[in-house]
Design a protein that fits this description.
single chain; 643 residues; alpha/beta; 60s Ribosomal Protein L30, Chain: A; Rossmann fold; 3 domains; 7-stranded mixed sheet; 6-stranded mixed sheet; elongated; binds pyridoxal-5'-phosphate
């Protein structure tokens, strides 16, 4: 612990003569000594007036602790000595104007006399820099449970906050709020105009305002309804409408993980915890989040480090190598998709260096919250646009494969707003949720053998497992000429739909299969809509396709191969490997997370348990508004204006 002591003087001659300080900073503690209403000229302010003196003193004291690096929210104790306790009400009125929302410990005692008869009150204040939790939204029945705000742990760190302000001001970076990303039509027109001139793949800070689902494929500014595919029965074999919202329209990385990366980092910036001048942002993932993180780091002009398993697709590494200036900023860990533990281990090593700031998508609640608020609203807009045309439609389920479980947060929103069931998908070759199993698979982007801390397991309704043989095989059908011709000519799939299947990467195909399985399991009909996402497109898996073609079809891939694959993995898909969760099932999956988070990663059992309560998530979902306020305040302080 740092016990460095800094002394602050008001310049009053008595401090020098007697030998005392007005305030002392001791490490991160700030103490403001007994202060009365003596003015700079030595006279007493508002002689005998308890209310006016209290206010005057509190203002004066605030200027001292601010100078020492503490904010009003960091004050945890106020001691008041009054010469006439019958004036308590006046004192409290003035006190409340400052500290009512902060709720520090408070003492008020009567003392016979102060230094001069005209002084009616003397005050002491103690603060701990960074101890404030901004806006604790209290809404809980169980007083033993920690609130979402306590678990998320956003505390102001004044010094680095000020450095960040300077950094963003100098780099002229404006931060979008979550509500602007949820509804980009609310982004000011001048900014939209400036953004239209910026290429979507340029590392330009304005591209932060493209972190939403409303980008058109050609990036002509914005579409009214997020681009999506409604998969026809000829392909899915079910009556229910299976809808995939397309994620390869996000800037820089052509996949939605760049939104998660922003959402994990931005609360840490606007609370002063991440210091762009001092920290390297470290982005652990099985691929796309690390790319998204490096993109965000570049947009914010700070240093980003990608950590990902060595066997991820070549396209991911090609992109990273083009983006980072220093090759040390790409760290590979052993294994592939299912080796998340190895990524955690690498993070633990890196975290020893205080210059590294680990932005862990598996436990940063911003990941869940952004998908709840931004993706949830976008997917609702897709459904609403369908319902406008067909009023009888119902949003029956939201399906998403779980990597960090961020995307599943959109399901929480769709359940709140439409009563949709939430379905979590995983690889059959590594069925952590379904069978508590283990193994290797190739559905890149959905990590496993662990339950992410940000997964609202107790709100999940079904878990489904999909084989990577199905996703690898269908990747060939969807992305070879023979396969496409087969779909058009022999299965009768609309050519326009076949053309769009190139927007489905491996995990998107898993989502599609999980959605079909859900429709089968729940007996959904033509009025039911199942929404899912195409998190990235096939363009990220060309090398995987070539590898499989060379290995399994050395003499060429033809319509017979396409027929075999679709017969087995589409028409032949049944309702095996899917479970409707009851309370026992949910608790089983929830408890499995204990081993990763409490035993391995040092999360307290209290923080871990808090997430079992629905009230925790309700509080979390309300925090988006607080964060937006903090982002707004931060932008105001940087003074950056665009357009
Ligand atoms: C391609 C792909 N699909 C799916 C996912 C899973 O999304 P989430 O991490 O939000 O659960 C990821 C996450 O990295 C991904 O990269």
């Amino acid at each position: 612990m740092n016990y460095e002591r800094t002394l602050y003087s008001s310049g009053a001659p008595l401090e020098e003569a007697a030998g005392y300080s007005r305030a002392i900073r001791l490490g991160d503690f700030v103490f403001v000594g007994g202060t009365t209403a003596v003015q700079a000229d030595g006279s007493v302010f508002a002689e005998g007036d308890a209310y006016a003196q209290t206010k005057y003193i509190l203002e004066k004291m605030e200027s001292y602790y601010l100078e020492a690096g503490a904010r009003r929210e960091d004050v945890y104790r106020v001691k008041m000595y009054v010469t006439d306790i019958s004036k308590a009400k006046e004192v409290i009125t003035a006190y409340s104007e400052f500290y009512k929302p902060i709720k520090p410990l408070a003492t008020m005692v009567e003392t016979p006399k102060l230094n001069r008869p005209s002084q009616v009150i003397e005050i002491e204040i103690d603060a701990l820099i960074g101890s404030a939790t901004k806006k604790v939204t209290e809404d809980r029945k169980d007083p033993a449970r920690k609130t979402a705000a306590q678990v998320v742990g956003l505390r102001y760190l004044a010094e680095s906050y000020e450095r960040s302000i300077k950094w963003f001001r100098e780099a002229q970076i404006l931060l979008p709020t979550l509500s602007q990303l949820a509804d980009p039509s609310t982004i000011p027109g001048s900014l939209q105009g400036a953004l239209a001139k910026v290429d979507q793949n340029e590392a330009h800070p304005l591209n932060l305002f493209r972190l939403h689902w409303y980008n058109a494929l050609d990036y002509a500014w914005r579409v009214r309804v997020p681009e999506h595919i409604v998969l026809p029965k000829e392909l899915t074999g079910v009556d229910a409408r299976i809808v995939l919202v397309l994620g390869n329209r996000f800037p820089m990385v052509s996949c939605h993980k760049v939104l998660a990366a922003y959402a994990c980092l931005v609360p840490r910036i606007v609370s002063g915890q991440f210091d762009p001048a001092r920290h390297r942002a470290v982005w652990p993932s099985t691929g796309n989040y690390a790319r998204g993180g490096v993109a965000i780091s570049r947009l914010m002009r700070c240093r980003g480090v990608a950590i990902l398993p060595e066997n991820m697709s070549r396209e991911r590494f090609d992109w990273l190598e083009r983006q980072v200036d220093n090759p040390d900023d790409i760290i590979t860990t052993p294994g592939s998709e299912s080796n998340v533990k190895e990524i955690y281990d690498a993070c633990r090593e890196l975290a020893r260096d205080p210059g590294n700031f680990i932005v862990n998508q598996f436990c940063e609640f911003g990941n869940h919250l952004a998908h709840y608020q931004v993706s949830g609203a976008a997917f609702a807009q897709v459904f609403n646009s369908m319902q406008e045309k067909e009023p009888g439609l119902e949003l029956s389920a939201f399906v998403a494969a779980s990597g960090s479980a961020g995307t599943l947060g959109a399901g929480d929103r769709l359940k709140d707003d439409f009563g949709a069931k939430i379905v979590a998908v995983e690889a059959l070759e590594c069925p952590t949720m379904l069978y508590n199993g283990y193994g290797e698979h190739n559905i890149q982007g959905i990590g496993d053998k662990h339950i992410p801390l940000i997964h609202n397991v107790m709100n999940t309704d079904l878990v489904a497992a999909v084989s990577d043989q199905a996703t690898d095989g269908l990747n060939l059908v969807f992305n070879t000429e023979a396969g496409r011709a087969f779909l058009r000519e022999q299965m009768g799939v609309d050519p326009a739909v076949v053309d769009k299947l190139r927007h489905l990467g491996l995990s998107s195909i898993a989502n599609m299969l999980g959605a079909i399985k859900t429709a089968q399991k729940l007996n959904l009909g033509a009025q039911d809509v199942v929404i899912s996402v195409a998190t990235d497109g096939a363009e990220l898996y060309t090398s995987e396709k070539e590898k499989l073609l060379a290995q399994s079809y050395p003499t060429g891939f033809n319509d017979v191969h396409a027929a075999e694959i679709t017969a087995r993995h589409l028409a032949g898909m049944g309702t095996e490997h899917i479970e409707e969760l009851d309370e026992v099932g949910r608790n089983r999956i929830f408890n499995l997370g204990y081993y990763t988070w409490v035993e391995q990663q040092g999360i307290s059992a209290e923080d871990f348990e808090a997430r079992r309560s629905p009230a925790f998530w309700k509080e979390l979902h309300k925090m988006g508004a607080d964060w937006d306020e903090m982002i707004g305040e931060f932008n105001k302080r940087t003074g950056v204006t665009i357009g």
